[in-house]
Write a structure and sequence with these properties.
alpha+beta; 2 domains; three-stranded mixed beta sheet
Length: 202
């Protein structure tokens, strides 16, 4: 067998990864023009800015989270999207809810649609878990942190959604009371949550 061309080697790279990024291509020593040519030939498809995949590749139910994490690596999946990821409640958001630091530049992404929320200080930095989705590290707030965030944003999302999540997480042992209480203090919603927490443990 003869030596593989750059195009063939790049296709092999794409087959080995659920998502191939421009950064991956540059790190492997390829010219990024190859990506445009492969897309034009129908060998790769562009799923988001700087992110590509093989057209026939199957994706997981959390594919949108992986794409969003690739585009906004310092963001954190939050609120309704984090709730759905943890399998709590009945919300199925059509947008990816992602938190960014209040000083960060707002990301621009055509796919998937993003609902960007700005957090700051400990409210942004604490409660982050890193999960691997389609071979990519994805930052997601923990179930307990997500519940506290829902109460913080209850006027935008709905108190009924926050209460449903709190009950289900507690009954399904998805979050411990000390964790919920800790993040309630981080998010400064302890006073709001206190009567609902007392009802759960009474």
């Amino acid at each position: 067998m003869g030596k593989l061309t750059d195009k063939q080697r790049l296709v092999l790279q794409a087959r080995q990864r659920p998502i191939l990024t421009r950064a991956d291509v540059v790190a492997a020593g390829f010219h990024t023009q190859h990506l445009s040519r492969l897309v034009k030939a129908g060998i790769l498809e562009r799923v988001a800015r700087g992110q590509y995949r093989m057209p026939a590749r199957s994706v997981t139910e959390h594919h949108g989270l992986a794409v969003a994490a690739g585009a906004v690596p310092q963001g954190v999946i939050c609120l309704l999207s984090a709730l759905s990821f943890h399998g709590i409640g009945t919300q199925v958001p059509f947008e990816i809810w992602i938190a960014i630091d209040r000083r960060s530049r707002r990301p621009s992404l055509k796919y998937p649609p993003l609902h960007v929320v700005r957090f700051s200080g400990p409210s942004f930095a604490e409660g982050i878990e890193v999960h691997e989705i389609e071979g990519r590290p994805v930052r997601v707030y923990s179930a307990a942190k997500t519940i506290a965030d829902l109460f913080k944003y209850r006027n935008k999302i709905g108190l009924d959604v926050a209460l449903e999540a709190l009950r289900e997480a507690w009954q399904g042992n998805r979050a411990r009371m000390n964790e919920i209480d800790r993040y309630a203090r981080v998010c400064r919603v302890s006073t709001v949550m206190k009567p609902f927490l007392e009802m759960l443990v009474s």
